[in-house]
Amino acid sequence: MHTTLVAGWVDSVALYELVVFDPSDPVLDPMWRQGMF
């Protein structure tokens, strides 16, 4: 269950990141990844 939960959470975070943040941004994107993972 844990693996499924984490996989679903990562998918939702990735989708949220695509919608909210510019993936080419050199500042926000690394900060977001380091902060959440």
Automatic annotation (TrEMBL):
Protein localization: Membrane
Chain coiled-coil ranges: none
Keywords in alphabetical order: Chlorophyll, Chromophore, Membrane, Photosynthesis, Photosystem II, Plastid, Transmembrane, Transmembrane helix
SUPFAM superfamilies in UniProt: Photosystem II antenna protein-like
Keyword Transmembrane helix: yes
A Gene Ontology term for the protein's cellular component: photosystem II
Membrane topology: Multi-pass membrane protein
GO biological process entries: photosynthetic electron transport chain
Gene Ontology terms, MF aspect: chlorophyll binding
InterPro entries for this protein: PS_antenna-like, PS_II_antenna-like_sf
The name this protein goes by in its record: Uncharacterized protein
Source organism per UniProt: Gossypium harknessii
